[in-house]
Design goal:
Number of strands: 20
Distance between the termini: 40 Å
Organism: Taklimakanibacter albus
Largest sheet: 6 strands, mixed
CATH architecture of the largest domain: 3-Layer(aba) Sandwich
Number of helices: 9
Keywords: ATP-binding, Nucleotide-binding
CATH superfamily of the largest domain: P-loop containing nucleotide triphosphate hydrolases
CATH class of the largest domain: Alpha Beta
CATH topology of the largest domain: Rossmann fold
Strand order of the largest sheet: 6-7-8-3-9-10
Strand content: 25-35%
Protein name: ABC transporter ATP-binding protein
C-alpha cells in the first residue's frame, strides 16, 4: 500500500488513475488515462459521448478491470480489489431502480445486503428521504414518480450507504431544464453537507463548469487537460479544449505568422500580439479570441470593422455574428446595445490583444 499521492489541489488523493487502458475487442475505450482527485473534491469528467467517461467510472467502482495501469483509492492499490471493499457508490444514467420495490425498500435494500440492523435501517431511510424531500413518497413504486423524484431515489440509495466516493454517470440527462437546474443545486448542497468525494461525468459544458471544482476534459479515452474552470477557459492547451470551454464558443480564425513572429495575418487584417510566438514566419495557425474579449470601439481605435450577419437575442444579451468573406466573428453585447444594431451594419471592433490565443494549425496545440 502506498501513501496518499497529492492531487493538484494539494489535498490527499482520494482517487488516482495511472496510465489506465481498456479495450473491448477492437474498440479502445481508454488509452493511458491518468488523473487524480483530491479528498472531498467535486470533480467533473467532461466530454462528448464515447470518450470513455462511463468506462472510467465503472473502473473506479470495480465493475471494470483495466487491461493495463493502476487504480488507487485513498492511496491503496485497488486495481483488482472486489467492489464491496472500495467504499464507492455509483448512480447510473438510467437510475437502475428496483421497479417492484417501494421507495422505502429501494433505500433499504443496500443496507439489508450489508446486514445493518432493522432499527438503524429505518432511521437512515427516513433521514435520507427527509433530506431529499421524499418522505411523502416512501410507499410509492418508482414508476409512479416523476423523473426528478426517481433521480432523487437513485441518489438516495447511493447516499444511504454513506460512501467515501460517489460516482455520478450523466445523472441529469433524462430530466428537463428546470429539474436539471434544481438537481445541480441539490447535488452541490449534498456535497457541502457530507464532504464526500464526488466524480461527476457529463457531456454538458454548463454542468461541468458550474459544478466541478476541477474538470478533466476527455477525448478518445484520455484526459486532454485537467484544471479549474478558470484555468481551462484562460489557458486551454489546444483547439479542442478551447472549443469545448466557454459559451458562445471561441472565435477561431485561420491565420499566418507574420515576418516579425509577433503578429498574425487574418481575413480581418493583421493583429499585433503582446508576445513573440514560438513559430516561424509563414506558419499556418489559428487565432482564437473569446466573444467576451471583443468590444465595439470608436472608428479611430478599432482593430477591424465588419458587417453584421446574424443577431441571436438570448434575453439580457445578444450574440452578434460579424462576417467578412469566409471568416466569422461572434461578439456578446447587452440587449440594450444590440437593439440599436441591424443586419448589414458595419461595426468597428477592438480586440483585447492580451487575450488572443494562438494554436498550431498542424496539431492544434497552443503556442505560448
Amino acid at each position: 500500500m502506498r501513501g496518499h499521492v497529492a492531487s493538484s489541489n494539494n489535498k490527499p488523493s482520494a482517487v488516482s488513475l495511472e496510465n489506465v487502458s481498456k479495450a473491448y475487442g477492437r474498440v479502445q475505450a481508454l488509452k493511458n488515462l491518468s488523473f487524480s482527485v483530491g479528498e472531498g473534491q467535486f470533480f467533473a469528467l467532461f466530454g462528448p459521448s464515447s470518450v470513455g467517461k462511463t468506462t472510467t467510472l465503472r473502473m473506479i467502482s470495480g465493475l471494470v478491470i483495466p487491461d493495463d495501469g493502476r487504480v488507487a483509492l485513498h492511496g491503496a492499490d485497488v486495481t483488482h480489489a472486489p467492489i464491496k471493499s472500495r467504499g464507492v457508490s455509483m448512480v447510473f444514467q438510467s437510475f437502475a431502480l428496483y421497479p417492484h420495490l417501494t421507495v422505502y425498500e429501494n433505500f433499504a435494500y443496500p443496507l439489508r445486503e450489508a446486514k445493518v440492523a432493522s432499527a438503524e435501517i429505518d432511521k437512515r431511510v427516513k433521514e435520507t428521504a427527509s433530506m431529499l424531500k421524499l418522505g411523502h413518497r416512501l410507499e410509492r413504486k418508482p414508476n409512479t414518480l416523476s423523473g426528478g423524484e426517481q433521480q432523487r431515489v437513485a441518489l438516495g440509495r447511493s447516499l444511504i450507504r454513506r460512501p467515501n466516493i460517489l460516482l455520478l454517470d450523466e445523472p441529469l440527462t433524462n430530466l428537463d431544464a428546470k429539474l436539471r437546474h434544481d438537481m445541480r443545486a441539490e447535488l452541490k448542497r449534498l456535497h457541502r453537507q457530507f464532504g464526500m468525494t464526488i466524480i461527476y461525468a457529463t457531456p454538458d459544458e454548463l454542468e461541468a463548469l458550474s459544478m466541478g471544482e476541477e474538470i478533466a476534459v476527455m477525448r478518445d479515452g484520455a484526459v486532454v487537460q485537467k484544471g479549474t474552470p478558470d484555468e481551462l477557459y484562460e489557458r486551454p492547451v489546444d483547439v479542442y479544449v478551447a472549443g469545448k470551454i466557454g459559451a458562445p464558443h471561441i472565435n477561431l480564425l485561420q491565420a499566418t505568422v507574420a515576418e516579425n513572429g509577433q503578429s498574425l495575418k487574418t481575413g480581418f487584417g493583421s493583429f499585433a500580439l503582446d508576445r513573440k510566438l514560438g513559430a516561424k514566419a509563414g506558419d499556418k495557425v489559428f487565432m482564437g479570441v473569446r466573444p467576451a474579449d471583443l468590444e465595439i470601439a470608436s472608428a479611430s481605435s478599432a482593430d477591424l470593422s465588419a458587417p453584421v450577419q446574424l443577431l441571436e437575442p438570448l434575453g439580457d444579451v445578444t450574440v452578434v455574428s460579424l462576417g467578412e468573406k469566409s471568416d466569422n466573428l461572434r461578439i456578446v453585447l447587452p440587449e440594450s446595445r444590440a437593439s440599436e444594431i441591424k443586419l448589414g451594419d458595419r461595426l468597428p471592433i477592438k480586440i483585447d490583444t492580451h487575450k488572443i490565443h494562438v494554436f498550431s494549425a498542424a496539431d492544434g496545440l497552443a503556442l505560448r
